[in-house]
């Protein structure tokens, strides 16, 4: 299964002839080439997941910040303390 994921360069679950040839040439050699290809695949996958997590986190923090701003009433003691803390 891992070999087919490594050969499928564009991740469309179909291995075209050019993908197969390019993938085999990329993996040619000893096990080090296969290990490096697997590592690159896993790195790309993890980077994508991390990017999605960061976008969701930014969105949720922005919502939280806007909610905090709405909760603060101008001129109250809590507002003045919060503004001094920032």
Helix share, percent:
over 70%
Characterize the largest beta sheet: strand count, sense, and whether it forms a barrel.
Answer: none
**Alpha-carbon Rg, integer:** 24 Å
Number of strands: 0
Task: Give the number of helices.
Answer: 4
Please report which band the strand proportion falls in: under 5%, 5-15%, 15-25%, 25-35%, 35-45% or over 45%: under 5%
Weakly predicted, low-confidence segments: none
- Summarize model confidence as the mean pLDDT: 78
* Helix and strand element order: HHHH
What does this structure look like?
The chain has helices at residues 2-7, 17-27, 31-71, 77-85. Helix content is 78%, strand content 0%. The N and C termini lie far apart (52 Å). The chain is mainly α.
Descriptive key words:
mainly alpha; 0% strand
Outline of the structure:
The protein has 86 residues and is mainly alpha-helical.
SSE layout and pairing:
Elements lengths: L1 H6 L9 H11 L3 H41 L5 H9 L1
């Amino acid at each position: 299964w891992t070999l087919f994921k490594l050969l499928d360069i564009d991740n469309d679950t179909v291995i075209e002839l050019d993908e197969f040839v390019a993938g085999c040439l990329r993996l040619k050699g000893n096990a080090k080439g296969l290990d490096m290809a697997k590592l690159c695949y896993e790195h790309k996958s993890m980077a994508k997941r991390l990017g999605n997590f960061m976008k969701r986190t930014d969105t949720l923090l922005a919502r939280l910040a806007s909610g905090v701003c709405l909760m603060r009433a101008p001129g109250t003691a809590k507002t003045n303390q919060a503004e001094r803390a920032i």
